[in-house]
Amino acid sequence: MEKKLTGSGDKAAVKIPATITFTAQGRLTDERFNQLTSPNNPYSVKEEPASTMLQSILVGVLPFLIVIGLLYFLFTRQLRMAGKGAMSFGKSRAKLLTRDKERVYFRDVAGCDEAKEEVSEVVDFLKDPKKFQRIGGRVPKGVLMVGPPGTGKTLLAKAVAGEADVPFFSISGSDFVEMFVGVGAARVRDMFEQGRKNAPCLMFIDEIDAVGRQRGAGLGGGNDEREQTLNSLLVEMDGFDGHEGVIIIAATNRPDVLDSALLRPGRFDRQVMIDLPDLKGREEILKVHAKKIKMSTDVDLTRVARVTAGFSGADLANLLNEAALVAARYDKSEVQMADVEEARDKIAYGRERRKLMDEDDKRATAYHEAGHALIQALIKDKKRELHKVTILPRGRALGMAMTTPTKEVLGYSKHDLLNLICMAMGGRIGEEIETGDFSNGAASDIKQATDIARRMVCDWGMSELGPVALGDNQEHIFLAKEITRSQNYSDDTARMIDREIRRIIQEEYERAYRMIQEHKEAHRKIADALLEYETIEGKHVNEIIEFGEIKSPVVTNTPPPIEPPAKDDGKKKPATDKDEGEEMGPSHAPAGMPA
């Protein structure tokens, strides 16, 4: 350790060493240091500190400054990401649709011609407002599009944005919801303020039921943030100030939960119903989506539209996309009709599963499905026909008898409903005739038949009890309506209802039993065909009933064979007929395409 000495006094001529070094044991290495530090020496010795006060302060405070600065940086960054500052929570999140994006026009929307006519009037008014004002008409302030999911409500709104040459704002109903109180109402006010600045303009609110639910609903009380947002929306749409030039287009699939004040004229003047497409609409939708896919010449879109009753526009788009994926999996250059059929069955019933089944289970399943198929082919239903029968598991079912509508089904008669119950009973009877025992495989059939019979008695008046509604309460709890309701009929009437349901099912059970007994040989041949081919079409069942055997070839959509791996020497072994058969697996169905 070193000591620095400074001298002061009269004897400035005395030379003193600048530094004196201590040894490790603390002794001085120079004896003159004792003389210099003696009391008689006029020179004083003092020790200079190794660090100053400023350095000590920096060492103690600087780490805290670094930590505080880092926390401040992270906090401000989070605020900017959350809403570009702490004061922007009440700003609207409506997005202005830019024109450089891919635009959608009315020609891209198919299957809802009436809805397009309704919303096209709004576009015409924005393009030529004098056309309506000359005769005293005014444009609707709000258009509410109602329909099941996947029917094209949002797509139609995009088409309005593409056709109208005005600013178009889009926002979701959930964007008004925030953890802070009053933010939803503030965002509504800011959204309409932006609309007034850009008037005339269109505003699209998707899933408006998120903020437009009926007020006072539920079991609790107190203040509700959602009701504040709804009140602000009601005032902005048709309040004291009004919103001239701002047209609201909203979409929902739950119009029953919306507040009645929101649906009145002056707010939503027009309700546009976008229902599931009919046969013509489905064909037009398929043609629109088929333009983007390489389709074979054997694909009949009219037939596809006929067998896809109940499909929405989104389902049909998914159908063609799944067909393209199936064709790509089979290494095909274009989509064929067999790929579309497989994609349709996959969407409607689930994908085939090669589940391990022993011979007894497979045989019982074959006779079960043969019973369904035989009944459906014999009853000659004018609204539905047998499409395909399979014993390959799909979804949760071990086998399936698939039917397709032959026309647009708008309602069912009593005769049609009795045929459905009779077909449901055919599987249990077919299994009982072959095995002599029952299984739980008919659980869903029994449940379906019981549900139809109960509705015939209680809801539709198709029994000896007459046209009396005896159904249960179907109100929703969250609508603040009746939560429960006591039984509105006596115990004697309940016994009569049970007897009628039992009578209907028992009569159809006996009817199905007689039909299968009369065509016992055809039933056995259908089951044998299922055990051989695993899947047959409805026409094959009709051929067995009429001719006693299958006349047309049974075709399947099989994947290409897997090539054998090359040997180490790089030469491939030539494939023989036996090798190809082993690679393909045991299959009795010839490859080909359905007619």
CATH architecture assignment of the largest domain = Up-down Bundle
Give the C-alpha Rg: 41 Å
Indicate the percent of residues in helices: 40-55%
Count up the helices: 19
Number of strands: 11
Could you report the average pLDDT, rounded to the nearest whole number? Answer: 76
In short:
The strands form 3 sheets. Strands 3-5-6-7-4-8 form a 6-stranded mixed β-sheet. Strands 10-9-11 form a 3-stranded antiparallel β-sheet. Helices cover 45% and strands 9% of the residues. The protein is of the alpha/beta class and 595 residues long.
Give a written overview of the molecule:
- Its EC number is 3.4.24.-.
- Acts as a processive, ATP-dependent zinc metallopeptidase for both cytoplasmic and membrane proteins. Plays a role in the quality control of integral membrane proteins.
- It is found in: Cell membrane; Membrane.
- The chain is of the alpha/beta class.
- The protein has 19 helices and eleven strands.
- Helix 14 crosses helix 16.
- The longest helix has 31 residues.
